[in-house]
Design brief:
The complex is a heterodimer of chains A (167) and B (266). Chain A is 73% helix and 2% strand. With 167 residues, chain A is mainly alpha-helical. Chain A has a single domain (2-165), classed as Arp2/3 complex 21 kDa subunit ARPC3, CATH 1.10.1760. In chain A, strand 1 and strand 2 (164-165) form a beta hairpin. In chain A, helix 1 runs antiparallel to helix 2, helix 1 runs parallel beside helix 3 and helix 4 (71-89) runs antiparallel to helix 5. Chain A starts with a helix and ends with a strand. Chain B is of the alpha+beta class and 266 residues long. Among the domains of chain B are: 52-91; 164-238, Thrombin, subunit H, CATH 2.40.10. Helix content of chain B is 34%, strand content 29%. Chain B has 4 helices and 12 strands. In chain B, a hairpin with a 5-residue loop joins strand 6 (164-169) and strand 7 (175-181). The radius of gyration of chain B is 21 Å and the shape is globular. Classes of the chains: A mainly alpha (167), B alpha+beta (266). The interface between A and B is large, with 53 and 46 residues.
Chain lengths: 167, 266
C-alpha cells in the first residue's frame, strides 16, 4: 500500500518543488521537498520500501529537471541504506538522529547531484555551489523536516498494524 | 545492485536512450506543473504587491510625471524613426531582432535542482520549436532552447552556470561575454582593461558566435571590477527580467543558430 502511496505524494512534492520552491529560495538554495519526504518515510520503514520511495522520488524529480534521469536517485538510495544501517544499531528514532540525518543527508544528496552534473558536462563551481546552494538548502531542510516527519508518521500509522507497515 | 541501476539510469539518460520514456512521463507532470506554477506566481505577486503598496503609490506618481515628459519625446523620436526606416530600406539593412518570427509560450515549471537554472515551457517540436532557438521577453534575453519533446521544451536560462552569451555594451560597443552566476545572476567578462565601462551601461547581444541574434537586451551594468593582475575587466550585469517569476516567453523561431564549431575544428 505504502509503495502506491509514494507516487501521488512524491509527484505532488516534485511539482511543488518545481513551482513554489523557486519563489522562496534564499541565495540559490531552497527546501528539497522530495528528499525530505523520502528521508521521513525511510526512517520508519523496511529497506526495500525506502528504496522504492527513493527511486520514485528521484526519477520524478529528474523528470522536471534538465539533469539526466537518475541524478537525484543516487544520493537518496545511499541515504536509505545508511538509515537502514543506523536503524539496526539504534533503537527508535530520536530527534538527534533525525537532525543529524537531515544535515548529513542533505550534504550527501547535494554533493552527489553536483558530482553527477559535473560528469554530465555542466560546469558546476563546487565552492560557489556549496556556499550559495548547499548551506541554504541544509538550513531549509533542517527547519522543514519536523512538520514533514510528523505528517509522514501520521500517515504511516494509518497503514500500520502492530508497528509494521502493510506493504 | 541499486547503485548499479542508478548509474545505468544516468548513463542511459545521458546517451538519450530514455528520451522517449522521459518525454511521455513528463507530459502529465508538466501539465499539472503548469497549473501549480500559475497559482504559485499569483500568490507571489499578491504578497509582493501588498508589501510594496506604499512604494508603488509613490512610484506611480513619479512615473506619471515621467510619462508626460516621455510623450513629448516620443513625438520627436517617431520622426527620427521614420527617417531611420526610410534610410535602412534604402540600404536594404535589417538588424538581427527585427522581422523575427516568435511563438509565445507559458512557463510551466522551474528546474527542480538549485544548481541548474532552466525552465520548462508548454511548446515543443509540434509547434516548430527546435534546440538552439533563442528565448526572449519584452524585457530582453531569457535563454535558449536546450531540449525539446513533442509538446514541451526546456530552456537554459542565461543565469545558468553553463551559459555564455557574446555581448557588447550598447554605448561604447565594447565586446565581452556574459556568463551566468549562481550568486549574482550575470557577469560580463573579457572586457579589455582599456575599455570605458560605466554603471548603467546597457549590455546587448553582439551576435558573435551565431547563437543569438544581435541587439537583444541582456541587462544593465551595476558594478565594474578591475584588478591590475588580471587581463580583463569584469562587470556585474542585472537583467531586467525576474527569472523566478517568468510567466510567458517568446521563442524566436525564425532565427537559425550558426554552428561555428566547423571553423574551430579546422
Amino acid at each position: 500500500m505504502s509503495n502506491w502511496l509514494s507516487l501521488p505524494m512524491l509527484a505532488l512534492a516534485a511539482i511543488l518543488q518545481s513551482t513554489f520552491v523557486p519563489q522562496i529560495r534564499i541565495l540559490g538554495g531552497g527546501p528539497d521537498l522530495v528528499f525530505l519526504f523520502v528521508l521521513a518515510w525511510a526512517l520508519n520503514t523496511r529497506l526495500e520500501n525506502g528504496v522504492t520511495w527513493a527511486f520514485v522520488g528521484g526519477v520524478l524529480q529528474d523528470l522536471l529537471s534538465a539533469a539526466p534521469t537518475g541524478t537525484s536517485v543516487l544520493g537518496m538510495v545511499i541515504l536509505v541504506f545508511a538509515i537502514n544501517q543506523i536503524n539496526r544499531q539504534v533503537y527508535g528514532v530520536s530527534l538527534a538522529v533525525i537532525a543529524a540525518l537531515v544535515l548529513a543527508g542533505t550534504l550527501l544528496q547535494q554533493v552527489m547531484v553536483m558530482i553527477v552534473l559535473r560528469f554530465s558536462g555542466f560546469p558546476i563551481n563546487l565552492i560557489e555551489n556549496f556556499t550559495y546552494i548547499v548551506v541554504p538548502t541544509m538550513a531549509y531542510n533542517f527547519v522543514l523536516i519536523w512538520p514533514i516527519y510528523w505528517f509522514v508518521r501520521r500517515l504511516q500509522k494509518r497503514y500500520t498494524r502492530d508497528g509494521r507497515l502493510l506493504v | 545492485m541499486c547503485l548499479f541501476i542508478c548509474v545505468g539510469l544516468i548513463l542511459a539518460s545521458r546517451a538519450g536512450l530514455l528520451s522517449p520514456v522521459e518525454g511521455v512521463l513528463s507530459v502529465p507532470l508538466n501539465a499539472i506543473s503548469g497549473v501549480f506554477n500559475r497559482v504559485a506566481l499569483s500568490l507571489t505577486n499578491t504578497v509582493t504587491d501588498l508589501s510594496e503598496l506604499q512604494s508603488l503609490r509613490e512610484r506611480n506618481a513619479n512615473l506619471e510625471e515621467a510619462l508626460a515628459q516621455f510623450q513629448a519625446e516620443i513625438v520627436e523620436l517617431r520622426e527620427i524613426a521614420s527617417d531611420y526606416d526610410r534610410l535602412t530600406d534604402l540600404l536594404d539593412y535589417t538588424t538581427g531582432v527585427r522581422n523575427q518570427q516568435t511563438i509565445a509560450a507559458d512557463v510551466v515549471g522551474i528546474d527542480q535542482l538549485s544548481s541548474l537554472r532552466t525552465i520548462a515551457i508548454n511548446r515543443g517540436a509540434r509547434d516548430g520549436i527546435a534546440v538552439g532557438m533563442p528565448v526572449v521577453t519584452g524585457q530582453g534575453l531569457v535563454g535558449r532552447v536546450m531540449d525539446v519533446t513533442a509538446n514541451a521544451s526546456r530552456v537554459l536560462l542565461i543565469t545558468d552556470q553553463s551559459s555564455a552569451v557574446s555581448a557588447r555594451l550598447q554605448n561604447t560597443r565594447v565586446e565581452g561575454s556574459v556568463i551566468g552566476q549562481i550568486a549574482i545572476g550575470l557577469r560580463m567578462t573579457y572586457i579589455p582593461l582599456s575599455a570605458a565601462v560605466q554603471e548603467g551601461d546597457l549590455a546587448v547581444t553582439s551576435g558573435l558566435g551565431g547563437n543569438f541574434p544581435a541587439d537583444i537586451v541582456i541587462g544593465q551594468v551595476i558594478s565594474v571590477r578591475e584588478q591590475q593582475s588580471e587581463l580583463y575587466k569584469e562587470a556585474e550585469i542585472r537583467s531586467l527580467i525576474n527569472f523566478d517569476t517568468l510567466e510567458f516567453v517568446l521563442v524566436v523561431t525564425s532565427f537559425q543558430p550558426v554552428d561555428v564549431s566547423t571553423f574551430e575544428d579546422s
